[in-house]
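Hey, I was hoping to borrow your eyes for a little while. For a while now I've been wondering how a particular protein folds. The fold is given in discrete form, as structure tokens running alongside the sequence. Could you read through the record and tell me how the tokens relate to the sequence? Take your time with it, there's no hurry, and the full record follows here:
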Amino acid sequence: MDIALILAAVIAVVMIIGGFSIYNGIIGGHNRVQRAWSDVLVYERQKTKVLDQLQKVLADFMVYEASLLEKITGLRSAVNALPAGANGNALTTVETATRELMGGLRIAFEAYPDLKASEAANNMMREIAEQQENVGAAITIYNRNVELFNNAIEMFPGSVVNGLFNKKTRVTPFTDTEASQSFSYTPNI
């Protein structure tokens, strides 16, 4: 009888330790998702700082390009409207506005040869492109953390622990529907 009691106590201790481990893993995963989302917000806001500088440089050349100035303002507003909580759907507006702005800037550079020669404008265009690459990398990290977190709360035994204690909900990853429409993949089976 003593062996059965000891065995039951050991199993109970292992289950309790396992439960704490899963619980803490879910909390850690949620915190990683929030941190990754914060990184996305930081890069998006850094991009708007460059846009502010670019807007000043381009003002002289953009007398006839009011729509481009509107796109800069729209992008800045979209970035400022991003929620503090992780939400991949919120990025869709910002990424669409960025694509439109970059297209408009390319057209403006072609329309104004003096602007093309401006070192300040060229440097800012490179910086905007670099900031956009940083945003892309941050989104990749965010989506990976979202996937790991969502798996942790949806798969057994994490789903049981989450259902009983954490009550965390799925986080929405960022998806770029425009990019995915132009990409098709069929696995070799």
